[in-house]
Structure prediction request, 510 residues.
Amino acid sequence: MTTVPESIQVMWRNLRRLTHFSSIKGKIFIVFVVAFLSTGALTGLNYWNLSTVMDRMLLSENYDDLLNNILEMRRLEKNYLIYGSPIGFSESSAYMNSIDDIVESLNDDLNFLIGETELKKFKQTVRKYRNNIEKITEKSSYIVEDNTIIIEQTYIQQQSLRSLGKILTDSAERYRRIKRERIHKTIQRTSILPFAFLAIVLFLMILLIKLISSGLLRPLDVIRDMTGVVARGDFRPIHYDGVRLEEVAGLIEAFNRMARELETNQEDLLQARKIAAIGTFTAGIAHELNNPINNIALTAESFEEEYGEKVDENGREMLRDILGQSERAADIVKNLLDFSRTESPLFHCLQPSLILSSTLNLLKNQLHIAGLQLELNVSAELPCVQGNLRNLQQVFTNLILNAIQATPRGGLIRVAAELNDEGSHVRMSVRDSGTGVPVSIRQQIFEPFFSTKEVGKGTGLGLAVSYSLIKRHDGRIEVHGEEGQGAEFVVLLPVPSTSTESNVMKGEEA
Prediction:
């Protein structure tokens, strides 16, 4: 089995891409191929016509020679009829031989020009004319009487000779005229070719202009106008009903995809700005609240140590409530500080299995107490992601705790990690079997202090902090799932282009 060389395969693939009829390259390639073939065909036709004219002109000279030889024969015939002497016919043999040679050389052309039947008649006439001359030469008797030569010839022979000569002259003249007419027609046909070439070029130019205008310039104008619309904040897609060439369709699709991404990023940008503003605001408040909260907790602990035995049960319950609420307030302040922190943590190359397993180890008791089942599904040989283990543990702790709180007892929580379809991100998800997240509030759940939980059961900072941490990892966090069928929170972290094995954190480092 023969193997096709790589160079030929590459050339064939390039040719197939060029001749893809729905693309600009394919259509322009076709136009140029048609132009080249038309030019080649017209050039070949013009060359053939010129060659034909040249050949016919050369043949026309033979027709002139034929007529001239016949006229010379008629001149000898005229001398005979006027002077009654056949002596001049001694030169006729050379002319007759020349006529025979010319007729033989023109045999194919005459056969095409006048037909086989008429050509036979012409040859018969030539033979009859030759026979008459030979008879006149042979039958002439010379009787010398008083130094006078008397030529005996009948009147019928003279009339036959004149008649045959006239037929030959008229036929040769007609043949020459027909030949010249054909040459003129060929010349006229040749003169039309440049105009035909001009018409084809004009047609191809009009076709190319129409192709560029309707298939390229018009959609580009639409895209240019839509860029101004997008710049004003309107991210609606392009709806173009004109000629959709492959490149233009790809450009429009890329533009629409860009518009969708811009719309999504615009919402993310607004969200990030809102979070940044709130973070700056809350950071100052958190620092101011931290000291009085610590003082309240220390004072309550000191009071309990000093006067705990002198206080009745109600008093001790109040002290415990003060300490509990102080601890809760301290946790809220800690979350606020984590949320507003802007320093860049140290990143390492982390295995997704390490991130999820270390987080689940921290939450095993909560899952057991809540009476929930856990399903962990991590694809084998996933690439590592660049991240900070503590930050990512905090993110998935928040997501899994939310799933635990949203799932009824006996329910199932699914935790999974896999590559996305493009292979550019690791997709880690936490799915519960609760009531799901209503579509109407999905854009709000990542805002600080927004919570769907009962008062006192959530601060509304968990998802906001998670959103901020994932953004620092150049990733995305999304929420999916049909309402009433559970919620799925998806974290997408980018796969680094190069991984250094020495930076991969092993399980024992957690």
About this structure: The domain at 246-342 is CATH 1.10.287 (Helix Hairpins). The chain has twelve helices and nine strands. The longest strand covers residues 412-419. Residues 141-154, 499-510 have pLDDT under 50 and may be disordered.
